Amino acid sequence: MRGILLSLLLITPLAQAENLLTPWTAGPPSGEWSTPWKLADIPKLKPSQRTLVELDGKPVLRIKADAAAGGLLHPLDLPGDQPWQLSWQWRIEQRLDKARFATREGDDYAARVYVLLDYPLDSLSFVTRQKLRLARTFFDPDLPAATLSYVWDNREAPGTHARSAYTETVEMRVLRGPEAALGEWLTESRDLRADATAAFGSAPRKILGVVFAADSDNTGESAESYFAAPLLQRGVTP
């Protein structure tokens, strides 16, 4: 009995913790996205279609990308040294045939989740600092210093990881590969502090946001993906 009670005490704090991601309760085609969710587009690229639909009895984010890219962003301002647990459900309807993991010409994913991280600039290499400063000046002043990118890939096995072909500040990690079922909900759960430390050598200063996305702009293919039950909670410190 004592062992059971101890287990319940350890599990309860996470199970009852507040969800720091506001549920999406409104969105296109009936109206604007519920605050604080907002569109996340890439300059000069055709934007994907993002709508709120009901599927399997629950409101879900649908992303349709036809030679396009884009996602839905939930801004955050959380201390990065805490044991944040991010979980969600996702499903895709078809794979991308021409995509190639972490290559410029094939950098497309039927579904992906970004976690935006803040690190001190002096923790980055000189070249990376300069590139980031230029990008913030000319493109986006809120560009994060580092990003975790969890992807559903068409070729690589889960656990495969590499830096983005475009920038060393983005760590790509495959969670689902070619063996994953199509048209079925699959659940993910990630320890953001552990993943960020493994990727960038230390915990981030802050968690700046989470983006649910899909893209097919490099290969010109079509992707259709769904996301549900986004959940961000403070985990239990070991």
Task: Lay out the secondary structure.
Layout: H1 2-15, E1 38-40, E2 49-55, E3 58-66, E4 69-79, E5 84-92, E6 109-118, H2 126-138, E7 146-152, E8 161-163, E9 170-176, E10 186-191, H3 192-200, E11 206-215, E12 222-234
Helical run tally: 3
Q: What's the domain count?
A: 1
Quaternary class: single chain
**Which architecture per CATH?**
Sandwich
Identify the strand order in the major beta sheet.
Answer: 1-4-11-6-7-9-8
* Terminus-to-terminus distance: 23 Å
Q: Biggest β-sheet: count, sense, barrel?
A: 7 strands, mixed
Summarize the structure.
This protein has 238 residues and is of the alpha+beta class. The protein has a single domain, classed as Jelly Rolls.
Give a structural overview.
This protein is an alpha+beta fold. The chain has one domain: Jelly Rolls. The strands form 2 sheets. The protein has a 7-stranded mixed sheet. A 5-stranded antiparallel sheet has the order 2-3-12-5-10. A hairpin with a 6-residue loop joins strand 8 and strand 9. It is globular, with a radius of gyration of 18 Å. The two termini are 23 Å apart. The N terminus is likely disordered.
For this entry, give a set of tags.
238 residues, alpha+beta, Jelly Rolls, seven-stranded mixed beta sheet, five-stranded antiparallel beta sheet, disordered N terminus
